[in-house]
Structures are given as structure tokens and as C-alpha cells.
Amino acid sequence: MFKKLPDAGTATVTVLIDGKPFQAPRGCTAAAAALLAGATSTRTTAVSEAPRAPYCMMGVCFECLMEIDGAPNQQACLVPVAENMRINRQPGKAEAKP
Amino acid sequence: MSAAFDLAIVGAGPAGLAAAVTAAGLGLRTAVIDEQPEPGGQIYRAIESVSTQRPAHLRILGPDYAAGLELVKRFRASGAEYLPQTSVWQVDGERNVYVRNRTGTARIAARQILIATGAMERPLPVPGWTLPGVMTCGAAQTLLKSAGVVPDGRFVLAGSGPLLMLLASQLLRAGVKPAAILETRPNTFAALRHLPGFLAAPGYLGRGLSMLSELRKAGVPHKTGVRRLHIHGDVRAREIEYEWHGQILRESADLVLLHQGIVPNANLAWSLRCAHAWDFAQRCFRPVLDAWSNTSVDGVLIAGDTGGIIGARAAALSGHLAALSVAFNVAKISTAERDRLAQPMRAEIKRHLRARPFLDALYRPPQEMVAPRDDDTIVCRCEEIRAGEIRRLVTEQGCSGPNQMKSFARCGMGPCQGRLCGLTVVEMIAESRGVPVPEVGYYRIRSPVKPVTVGELAGLGLDR
Amino acid sequence: MSRYDTIVIGGGLVGSAIAYGLARGGLKAALLDEGDVAFRASRGNFGLVWVQSKGIGVPEYQRWSRLSSGLWDDFAVELRQETGIDCAHEHRGGVTICLTEQDFAQRRQMMERLRLESGEPCFEYQMLGHDELRKLMPEIGPEIAGASYTRYDGAANPLYLLRALHAALLKRGGHYFAHSKVASLRAAPHDFTVTAGGATFSAPRLVLAAGLGNKELGTQAGLNMPVQPERGQILVTERVKPVLGMLTLLVRQTAEGSVMIGESHEDVGLNDATTPEVQQALAARAVRTFPFLRDVRVVRHWAALRVLSPDGLPIYEQSQQYPGAFAATCHSGVTLAAAHALRYAGFVADGALPAELARFTGQRFNVQKAA
């Protein structure tokens, strides 16, 4: 669905998207990284488990909720990628860990 | 941490940055709080990174974008305190600003608050709009600006508004071509009487015409007068169906980019109970402001698109103006000084606003695009409430307003807190009841306007 | 002018339950409701069908609450069959958490007193120490002393309940009028005329269930209903996977997965603003009780105004001056919904309140007024 422009720079950061390593452009957000890595959907809804993906990319729509470094329901479009960041699909409702 | 500021500015877009420059310049202790990692808001998103790391992209994004760099530089030099990657989740009755970033939460005391949270895309609820592979034009622009990322594969732009053309021409310059642009009918006839103002406004006509010419040269199929958009797909968007000159047509697409104008992003202002009024021309609510940017809540001001859509240039000017107002409010400058400094700003804002009545009229969304006809269209994306249910609750159960609708159907109760469904719900209730929108009102918006954990509320997070 | 068998003023949980009960009993009922932006205690209800804390020193209230809780099971089924709306009613008992040993001792005394006052059938409860409580609720915080438990307690979704009551009323031939705040009320024995929302209604029976509005309306109908607002604040979290298997008085997880965290009791007049102090206090207590909540996100912080009589008990009364006019106000609109629909409505229809409800007349406040 998306690709990096060839002159967009070569600096990358290694992140894990659903466990698979991916070279994300430095400075992009976790949501953008997921899209670049080829993800179609990035979560399923808490209501009906329908597949969803980022919509507004500016922190307003809350469609880009993903689990980031173990924390569920993070707005992935507001989180810049960092080395070894774990970015996972949010499967429905968040799990409340004890 | 509880630091006292004269002015806390929420939002680092043109209005917020300009206000900070003027406020700091007048000696006010100023803080700017913003969610993004760099200043610029959405319109000038990532301008510093682009200028230093991808300067070739300035040509792609165009001169209006590049023009933002100067303001950002002035902001960096202003001495205002800058809190990036920080969200504001609450402002209380004593003008304490509650913030949150990756390390924790804090409360910042301020004498005056300027809400400059800008605009967001108007929801465009069509069947299938919640499918993966459907995004806003603004989202595509953000990807281009913040990461040099463009659509890959077959993509279609649909909707209305100047941003459609702007994005298309930017993407063309970046080397990708939309498979089609499907423009819903602009209201050319109704807009014509505002044409003189538009023509007299600085540069808008020229820019518009040159974008159209770029598209034509590149051979991008461009249809206007499109109606009844319907996105089809199972787990992702596959094609977009539409009606054009009486025919039903389809475009296959991996990505559909929707847009129908922008509206104020004002949940923080609503949560403070700032009075709002319905703007018929822009077809949205806007805060009630006096001539000096003051809201109905003491010590709270609004500048930029949050106060009603005025565009980036006018937004910056309104930010400068609001800072003067703040300086006056805290008795830093006299009435005379304030009025003197404000005069050229007001004249300049007026110049930039000349184009607005024409643009507002031309692109005013039609009824079917704000109140979806198809019962299956999802209206509240978070809670998955469809148009049919909302309509039935009005016609069969006498549900008369958005708050009752919220309590009966749960729309507006999800994480986005009505940002993507509020306008639609209000228009639908008004239509079904046969009353004007202002009579219907809006959701009661409550804090936290951005997520915060129970633990953070309990004060267990790091207090800085 | 439209004639009805009963006019019910107030479309919240109390009014709509009674109106539904009347329609269900075959009476032609008009339910008058004010606009979308009104205080509306029903929208701020926590949603408990709660018995175990009710009626210390007032066994009649204990019994009325227990009666309603017992009726609720069939009531929920009836509403679902009638309207297709599921009120998410659960009835598996509930606990009141005692944070400290002192709380625990006080709670035990209170529960024992309720039992002694209850008569037949006897009020039954259990006190659970920390370890026993942990067996029921593994999520409980390490410092929590224990809890009281009864099997009478339950919960329902107050908003779906309201929606179901409205739908059921209409299905049974009742009439609902929105934007109909009372402009004028003329009372005579068994003869009431109300102007509201530009229309006029008349009926031989009138029920005042208008929450805070009852105080003023009551004076025109020969009923003393000196209700005052009491603010309560609630935090609501994002939906999470099911964790809390047991209801507690202050923290519960809804069927959708959101955790609701209550509650405050504030005497601040007609002020439904939320406050940072209470916000912090509610959150701190919630985390102490259930540490897992620490990392769960809050999506909403509500305040609503309870409708409280001076002693916190309901006001039920038939006007002596204007027979046919009935008072109905309480702060437990969900708990008492079943009793209101399936019992109180019947009393109104028959024109007489039973001896069990004599304790709740508004006249009990007159003595204080004279003094």
C-alpha cells in the first residue's frame, strides 16, 4: 500500500512488527512502519473484531491502536520508532495485565 | 512539577508557534505543548526534518509548505519553553494544564491558556469507509511529509476540497500518479457570488489553476459531480463505486484517500465548556470568540483553525493577535499598545480571509455527504454504530439530541470521543427531526480528552 | 387538549419505569420528558442493582430494595422479549470492599444490624476476610482487609435499561413527549392539567418523577418533595478483556469490558463539573483495590447529580390535598426499576399506596420544617 521514496534517506531503525524484524526509516511513526512493512490491518476492534488500519495519521481517529513494547492500545501514529521497538497488532480488547 | 507560566499554548501549528513568538517577545513566560516530535502542526509537519534531511522534498511539497520554516525558526529562537511529544489531557477550572508524555504525567499552572489545536478532516462516512486501505488525504500528506512515504499501487482520491488537488499534485511531483480523482459536486453556482473576493485574495486562484494544469498534463482521470461513493472489500478496500452522470461506475483500488474539507479539532475547548455556535457557511461548530480571541471561559483563548477554518497564513496571524490579547489580559501591555500592534495584523488577516467565503461556498458538503443515506454506513467508528440505528432512534423513540443518542446507542463513547462521529450524528438528528442543526446541540465532551491511565491519575506516575 | 389515564412527569429511570408499568397494566400513559441538555441523573447512574447497603435502621427500605432485586430477573427477560434490548442484567451477588480492618469491623456491625432488623425473610450476608475474598476475586490488592457479600446484589446497564423502558412504553401504547418541560400544572382531586412543550395534557392521575424538578412541581401538587442534588463522579476505562468476575460497590466491569470506577458524594449544588481532586482520589482508591487497573486507560470522567431526599430514602406518597397525584423519587433508579414498573405503577393505577410504603411519605419532612 505504501513505499518509501528513493531519496527519502537511508537511515533506518530495526523494529519488530508482529515479531518480524523490519528496517523502519528513522523518524517515522510506528503506524507508518507497520504500513510500510506491508500490514493491511493493524488491529481488530474491541466491539466486533472487525479489521481496522490507521485512518488519519494525526492522533484524532484512534484507529491506529497497536500494542507497543507490551503496552496495549497505543496510538501508533504518535510513537516515533526506536531501536528494537516491538510493534504488534492490537487484537480486540486490551488485556489488563496484573 | 508545577511551573508557573503566563501562557500555556496547546498546539505547535502556525497559530501556536506565532503566538509563542509574540508572547515570548513581549516577555511573557510561555510554554508550547504539542503531541508531535517537531514543531509545525499538521500543515508544516516535519518541516525541520524535511529541510535538513530531505530538502529535495520541499519542491514536491510546494512553496506554501516551505514557507513554514521561517516561523519554526523564529519559534526555536523565541525562548518559549517547548514540550514536544506531550499530550494535554485535561485543563481544570483553575487553568492548570495536565500533560502526559512517555515518562509520565505532570500538571502545569498557567495564567492564560491558548488553545491552538488546529483542524482535523471532516468525517466522510460512506459505506466501507472503515475498511483497511481507506485513509484521509491528510494522512497521505502526513506520510509524505514525516517519512517521505507515498502510496504504492493503485490509489484513488475521493471527496472534495482544495486538499484533494494539492495532494494529487504533490504526489505527481513525487513520481506517483493517482488512478483517479473523484470529486463530489462542487457548488459552483452558490459560490459564484463570492468570486470577486476570492479573486482579490493573494495567490489562491493562481495556485488552484496551476494544480489543475499539472493534473491534466499528467493525464490523471478527474471526474467532478460524483455522487454516492461506496467502498467495497472484505477485509480491505478493493474498489470504490460511485455514481456519475447517471451511471454507476467502479474503480479498483488498493488505497482510497478520502477528503471533504477540514473542521475545528476542538475537544479540549468543548471539555472546558467554551461556548460554541453553528457556522452555516462552514457547516460545523466553532467556538464563540470576542474580537480579542477570548472564549466564553475566563483566561482561555483560541487561535487558528480551532476557532473556525481560516487557513495557515491567517492562523499564524491570529496566533500573533491572540498573544497580544494575552499580554493585555495579564497587564503586560496597555490597551493602546495592544491596539496599535494589532492593527496591521488585523488588516493582513482580512486580506487572507477574502478567499474563504468562495471556498466555503464552493466546497460546502452536500447533505448526503454529512448525513449518510445508506442505513449500513458506520457512523460511530469506535462503537460500530450504523446510520440506520441512529435514524430509527430519532424517528421511533423520539431521541432528540446527541447526548440522548450517546446514552441510547453508545455513539461518541469510544476512544475518539466523538471526533469522527459528532458532526454526522448531529446532522442526522437534525435531518430526521426536521430542525436546524443549532437546535440539536453537540455532545457533552469530558476530560480526559486524550488517554491517561488510572495509575497516572492516581499520581503514581513520575511527577516532573 | 389530550386526555390520558396518567401523566408521568420525568423521562428518567424512575418515570419511564412507572410509565411502562402503567401502560403494561392497560392504562393510557403520557410520559413528559425535558430536553437533551438537562441534568438527567439517569445518565450518570453506576448501574448497580444494589441491596446490601440499603436501609440501616429502616427495614422497610431494606425490604423494598430486596423485593426489587428479586423481581429484576424476570423483569430483564420481559424487557428483552418486549423490545429486543438486552439490559445486560447480572445477578450473582456483590461485595463491598473494606480497605482496612477498621472498615471491616464497621461493615460487619452494619450488616449484622441489617440482619437483626430484617424480620422474615431474614437478610443474609457473609463477611469475607482477605484470603476468602481473594478466592472470589484474585485481582484484589494485597492490603485489602476484606469485604461483605450478599447474594441479593446485581447490576444492569442503566442506559440500555432506559432505552428499553422507553421502547417498551411505546410498544404498550404509551406516549412519549420529548422537549416537554412542564410550563404549568393545575391540580384538583383526581383531575390534573399540565401544559408542556406547547401541548396540554389532562388525566385523573399524575406521577411526579422529575428528579430535581420534583421539589418545585411538588408544591403545585400538594406533595412535599424536598430533594437536593448530590454530585457523584465516575471514571470509565477503555474496554478490556473480562477480569472482574464479581460486582463491587465502587468498581465494576461492564458487559462491554469497560471498568467503571466510582464514586464521590459532594454537596455542591447544581454543579456537574468534574474535579481533579476527586479524579485522583477515585483513581488512587481503585488502584489500591485492584492493582491491575494501574495500566488501564481512562476514557471518560463523568459527574452527575443524584436526586437525594434529606434522609437519602425514597419519597413515595399520594397527595392528601390532591388525591391522584403521586410522588416518586429515589437515588437508586436501576435497583428500584423493577419494583417501580411491577409494583408502584400498580399502586398508582389502584389509587392507593400500601402500608409498606407509608414510611416514605414526604410528610416525614414536615415535622422538621415546623421545628
What is the number of E strands of chain A?
8
Mean pLDDT of chain A: 95
Which regions of chain B are unreliable across 5 or more consecutive residues at pLDDT < 50? none
Outline of chain B, from the CA principal axes? Answer: globular
Tell me the fraction of residues in β-strands of chain A, as a range.
25-35%
Let me know the largest β-sheet of chain A.
7 strands, mixed
Number of strand elements of chain B: 23
The percent of residues in helical segments of chain A reads under 10%
**Biggest interface, residues from each chain:** A-B, 40 and 50 residues
Q: End-to-end distance of chain B, in Å?
A: 4 Å
SSE arrangement:
The complex is a heterotrimer of chains A (98), B (464) and C (371).
Chain A: E1 2-4, E2 12-17, E3 20-25, H1 30-36, E4 43-44, E5 51-52, E6 65-68, E7 71-75, E8 86-91
Parallel strand pairs in A: 2-8, 4-8
Antiparallel strand pairs in A: 2-3, 4-5, 6-7, 6-8
Chain B: E1 4-10, H1 14-25, E2 30-33, H2 47-53, H3 56-61, H4 63-66, H5 68-77, E3 81-83, E4 87-91, E5 96-101, E6 104-115, E7 119-121, E8 134-136, H6 137-147, E9 149-151, E10 155-160, H7 162-174, E11 180-184, H8 188-191, H9 195-200, H10 204-217, E12 222-232, E13 239-244, E14 247-252, E15 255-260, E16 262-264, H11 267-271, E17 276-279, E18 284-287, E19 300-302, H12 312-329, H13 335-353, H14 356-362, H15 367-370, E20 378-380, E21 385-386, H16 387-397, H17 402-409, H18 422-433, E22 452-453, H19 454-457, E23 462-463
Parallel strand pairs in B: 1-2, 1-6, 2-3, 6-19, 6-23, 8-15, 10-11, 10-15, 11-12
Antiparallel strand pairs in B: 4-5, 5-6, 7-16, 12-13, 13-14, 17-18, 20-21
Helix pairs in contact in B: 1-5, 1-12, 6-7, 7-10, 12-13, 16-18
Chain C: E1 2-3, E2 6-9, H1 13-24, E3 29-32, E4 48-49, H2 59-83, E5 94-98, H3 101-117, E6 126-129, H4 130-136, E7 146-150, E8 154-155, H5 158-171, E9 175-177, E10 182-188, E11 191-196, E12 199-203, E13 205-208, H6 214-220, E14 228-239, E15 247-248, E16 251-253, E17 258-261, H7 276-289, E18 297-308, E19 315-318, E20 325-329, H8 337-350, H9 366-370
Parallel strand pairs in C: 1-12, 2-3, 2-13, 3-9, 5-15, 13-20
Antiparallel strand pairs in C: 4-8, 5-7, 6-7, 10-11, 11-12, 14-17, 14-18, 16-17, 19-20
Helix pairs in contact in C: 1-5, 1-8, 2-5, 2-8
Describe this protein's structure.
- The complex is a heterotrimer of chains A (98), B (464) and C (371).
- Chain A is mostly beta strands.
- Chain A has one helix spanning 30-36; strands at residues 2-4, 12-17, 20-25, 43-44, 51-52, 65-68, 71-75, 86-91.
- In chain A, strands 2, 3, 4, 5, 6, 7 and 8 form a 7-stranded mixed beta sheet that branches.
- Chain A is globular, with a radius of gyration of 13 Å.
- The N and C termini of chain A lie far apart (38 Å).
- The mean pLDDT of chain A is 95.
- In chain B, the strands form 5 sheets. In chain B, strands 1, 2, 3, 4, 5, 6, 19 and 23 form an 8-stranded mixed beta sheet that branches.
- In chain B, helix 7 (162-174) crosses helix 10 (204-217) and helix 16 (387-397) runs parallel beside helix 18 (422-433).
- In chain B, helix 1 (14-25) links the parallel strand 1 (4-10) and strand 2.
- By secondary structure, chain B is α/β, with parallel strands linked by helices.
- Chain B has 19 helices and 23 strands.
- Chain C has 371 residues and is of the alpha/beta class.
- Chain C contains 9 helices and 20 strands.
- Chain C has helices at residues 13-24, 59-83, 101-117, 130-136, 158-171, 214-220, 276-289, 337-350, 366-370; strands at 2-3, 6-9, 29-32, 48-49, 94-98, 126-129, 146-150, 154-155, 175-177, 182-188, 191-196, 199-203, 205-208, 228-239, 247-248, 251-253, 258-261, 297-308, 315-318, 325-329.
- Chain C has a 6-stranded mixed beta sheet with strand order 9-3-2-13-20-19, with helices on both faces.
- Chains in contact: A-B, A-C, B-C.
- Strand 1 of chain A pairs antiparallel with strand 9 (149-151) of chain B.
